[in-house]
Write a structure and sequence with these properties.
Layout: H1 26-36, E1 44-48, H2 54-61, E2 66-71, H3 74-87, E3 93-97, H4 100-109, E4 114-119, H5 128-137, E5 141-152, E6 164-172, E7 175-182
Parallel strand pairs: 1-2, 1-4, 2-3, 4-5
Antiparallel strand pairs: 5-7, 6-7
Length: 203
C-alpha cells in the first residue's frame, strides 16, 4: 500500500498485522478519490474503522486540513500512528481508540463538524445506516459533506438516509463503494450510478 497522490505521494503504508483488517486496495482507493476529489481545498475528514489510516492519509495528502481517525483495535491504532509519522502528517491528525458510535458521541460533544467521512466497517457489522443517521441527526456534517462507504457488494444502499442523498455506487469484485452527500443546505445532487464490471474486478 502507498499514498497515491499529493504531498505524501509514493510513501509506503504499513498494513495492520494479522488477518482481522481488510485494507482498502490502492486500486479501490484511487477510484474513490477520482470520484470525490481528486484534490481538496481544505476541510475536515473523519475516518471511522480507520484500519491502516490509508483513506484519511490520502485525503490529507490531497489537501484536507485535519483528520480524526478512530478504530477499536490497538494494532490498528499503532499502525495508524506509524503511517501518519512516515507520511509526515501526524500534526494534522487526531487518533483515538474507540468504538464508532461512542466516538461519534464524543465528537458531537466537542461540536465537531466534517466535510468528508469514511465508513469502512467489517462486513459482518451492519451499522452503516445507523452511523450515518447519527451523523445527520447530530448535525455533524457540513453543507455538501460527502460520506464514502465501503461495503460488501451484496449489500445495497440506494435510498436517502436522513438528509443524506445517494449519489453513486461502484463495484470492485466483492467490494462496493457507495457515496452519499449532505443536502441539508438545499443544494440539489445529480444522481448517477456507475457500476464497473470487469475493469473494476479484483483478481
Amino acid at each position: 500500500m502507498r499514498v497515491i497522490s499529493g504531498t505524501a505521494k509514493g510513501r509506503s503504508l504499513k498494513a495492520v498485522p494479522g488477518m482481522n483488517t481488510r485494507p482498502t486496495t490502492d486500486k479501490v482507493k484511487e477510484a474513490i478519490f477520482s470520484m470525490i476529489g481528486p484534490y481538496f481545498d481544505g476541510g475536515h475528514v473523519l475516518d471511522l474503522f480507520a484500519g491502516t489510516g490509508g483513506l484519511s492519509i490520502e485525503a490529507l495528502s490531497r489537501g484536507m486540513d485535519r483528520a480524526v481517525l478512530t478504530d477499536i483495535e490497538k494494532k490498528s491504532i499503532d499502525t495508524i500512528k506509524h503511517n501518519l509519522e512516515v507520511t509526515g502528517l501526524s500534526g494534522q491528525a487526531e487518533v483515538y481508540r474507540n468504538e464508532a458510535a461512542r466516538a461519534l458521541k464524543v465528537l458531537h460533544k466537542r461540536e465537531a463538524r466534517f466535510d468528508l467521512v469514511f465508513l469502512d466497517p467489517p462486513y459482518r457489522l451492519k451499522v452503516i445506516k445507523d452511523l450515518i443517521e447519527q451523523l445527520d441527526h447530530n448535525s455533524m456534517l457540513n453543507p455538501d459533506a460527502t460520506i464514502v462507504i465501503e461495503h460488501d457488494a451484496e449489500d445495497t444502499y440506494s435510498d436517502p438516509i436522513g438528509r443524506l442523498e445517494w449519489v453513486r455506487r461502484a463495484e470492485y469484485g466483492d467490494t462496493a463503494v457507495t457515496i452519499y452527500r449532505n443536502t441539508a443546505s438545499g443544494n440539489t445532487v445529480e444522481q448517477a450510478e456507475a457500476t464497473e464490471g470487469a475493469e473494476g474486478r479484483e483478481h
